[in-house]
Write a structure and sequence with these properties.
Elements lengths: L3 E4 L5 E4 L6 E5 L3 E5 L5 E4 L3 H7 L6
Antiparallel strand pairs: 1-2, 3-4, 4-5
């Protein structure tokens, strides 16, 4: 199982399994949220494109 490390908006390390990511969405304030399910959501300070690239996924 592979994990990708991100720093969340609070400066804490978050390890995300790319296979569990459901969606990536941009919010105001230069915040992008990564969703891995109902309550597994992580806010990071990257653009959605940077986040998806870090997860090793292609954008269609």
């Amino acid at each position: 199982m592979d994990f990708v490390m991100f720093e969340d908006v609070d400066g804490m390390e978050v390890f995300v399994n790319p296979e569990r990511v459901i969606w990536v969405r941009e919010y105001p304030g230069q915040t992008t949220v990564i969703s891995c399910g109902d309550e597994d959501k992580f806010a990071v300070r990257l653009s959605p494109a940077q986040t998806v690239a870090a997860l090793g996924k292609a954008v269609r």
